[in-house]
Write a structure and sequence with these properties.
Blueprint lengths: L5 E5 L6 H9 L4 E5 L4 H9 L5 E5 H9 L10 E8 L4 E7 L14 E5 L5 H13 L8 E6 L3 H10 L4 E5 H9 L3 E8 L5 E6 L3 E2 L2 E2 L1 H19 L1 H11 L4 H8 L13 H13 L11 H4 L5 E2 L2
Parallel strand pairs: 1-2, 1-3, 6-7, 6-8, 12-13
Antiparallel strand pairs: 3-10, 4-10, 5-8, 5-9, 11-12
Helix pairs in contact: 1-7, 3-10, 8-9
Length: about 300
């Protein structure tokens, strides 16, 4: 394939700050393509050959590879790196004018809004239902409403098209502060939250395209810069990404990026797959096995 700049899909939220620093200061020669609708959209894009590498939510990537049917024989991508080591806090939101919804228990049998089938917002609905015991009662949700992006999700819980949705806490917070939506509760991922994947055109057998290795090196520098320059990170997040300065500072206390982004721990993938099988998102014996989802690198390609 072409040896031009990597096309990297990412979610344009606060988590993307080390990626921004990698490109600004550390020679990351790549085309950054924003996907505000999230990981589910990037799964489709990387399989379609629209992007080469992507940074997204662990559960979205793993659900995509573990499904019974995939859009290409090899699943289209492999897990190659770890971007965030801490869990993600998913805030659970409803409409501002929904007095009938007072707690997480009020959501049982309701309509869940998701960005896409297979996205983090979709997968975590099953994890929530499993944690609450609703799956065992066969009484989780009456409908799954696909709404594509955060703005439409907020509109849907206010119009009644959906009863609730889940999105990252700090991205949701300013809409709680403005009174547009209301917070019902939260749920944390039982795994480290962000992974890096590469197309199987770049990651195949035990070989990884050398440009992805270069990406890891630049990202590692970007992470170090992020950690050593918190004021610059806060300034970028609050001026370019739409967060308040206090929220950006508070988020910095909750997140931990790895010092080395290359590689994925087997136990993280195995744990995620086990929970997604328990929650009914994945079925044992279907899709890729956990050990096949991660590229085992022994050499870098040209």
């Amino acid at each position: 394939m072409s040896q031009g700049p990597l096309r990297i899909g990412f979610v344009p939220e606060h988590f993307s700050t080390p990626l921004h620093f990698a490109q600004k200061y550390y020679g990351l020669h790549a085309t950054l393509i924003p996907f505000p609708s999230g990981t589910g959209h990037m799964v489709t894009a990387i399989r379609a050959g629209e992007i080469d590498v992507a940074i997204g939510l662990t559960e979205g990537w793993i659900a995509g590879l573990g499904k019974e049917t995939v859009e290409s024989d090899d699943g289209g991508y492999r897990l190659v790196g770890t971007y965030v080591e801490t869990p993600l806090c998913w805030a659970i939101s409803t409409g501002a004018g929904r007095p009938d919804i007072t707690s997480i228990s009020s959501l049982k049998g309701g309509k869940i809004g998701v960005s896409r089938i297979g996205s983090g917002s979709y997968v975590m609905g099953y994890v929530l239902a499993d944690q609450q015991g609703w799956l065992a009662e066969n009484a989780s949700f009456s409908d799954t409403v696909v709404l594509h992006d955060f703005e439409k999700l907020r509109g849907a819980v206010n119009s009644g098209e959906a009863d609730f949705f889940m999105w990252e806490h700090f991205t949701s917070k300013k809409y709680y502060d403005s009174g547009e939506i209301r917070r019902v509760g939260e749920i944390y991922t039982p795994w480290s939250s962000w992974k890096i994947v590469a197309s199987t055109k770049l990651a195949h057998g035990t070989t990884l395209d050398a440009r992805v290795k270069t990406l890891f090196a630049a990202l590692d520098h970007g992470v170090k810069h992020f950690e050593q320059n918190p004021d610059e990170a806060v300034a970028y997040i609050s001026t370019e990404l739409g967060y308040t300065e206090p929220d950006a500072r508070e988020w910095l206390k909750t997140v931990r990026f790895p010092s080395r982004t290359e590689g994925v721990k087997d136990e993280v993938v195995e744990n995620c797959v086990a929970i997604l099988r328990k929650a009914g998102v994945l079925v044992q014996g279907k899709g890729l096995a956990p050990e096949s989802m991660v590229l085992r690198v022994t050499e870098a390609g040209p």
